[in-house]
Inverse folding.
């Protein structure tokens, strides 16, 4: 049951709000996105979620002790990804990326129309 709850959280990328919307600025350029994530890990401590989004299009990490793998591309100003969480597929989705300085990134599913998650960059 705990794993199902965690999966739901990861699938929807829902996390507690950490800052007001006006504190974040859209990242529409792939090069800017790559600069922000270069040699950094995306983390949400509440779920023990750590992701490495690599320049070659791979995603590697873990959440709640289970591995995450995936692929990503940049399409029309959005981060598009599909992932697998320890055998559970996470469907392809394009997400709006927003930055709060160089310390936080917020991803909002469905090109900015859905749930969002805010990651700390470490």
């Amino acid at each position: 049951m705990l794993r199902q709850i965690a999966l739901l959280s990861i699938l929807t990328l829902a996390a507690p709000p950490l800052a007001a919307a006006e504190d974040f600025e859209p990242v529409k350029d792939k090069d800017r996105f790559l600069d922000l994530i270069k040699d950094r890990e995306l983390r949400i401590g509440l779920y023990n979620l750590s992701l490495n989004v690599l320049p070659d299009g791979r995603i590697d990490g873990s959440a709640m002790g289970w591995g995450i793998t995936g692929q990503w591309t940049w399409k029309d100003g959005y981060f598009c990804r599909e992932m697998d969480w320890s055998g559970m597929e996470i469907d392809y989705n394009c997400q709006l990326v927003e930055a709060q300085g160089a310390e936080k990134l917020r991803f909002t599913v469905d090109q900015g129309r859905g749930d969002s998650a805010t990651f700390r960059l470490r």
Q: What stands out?
A: The helical segments are 2-12, 30-37, 109-112.
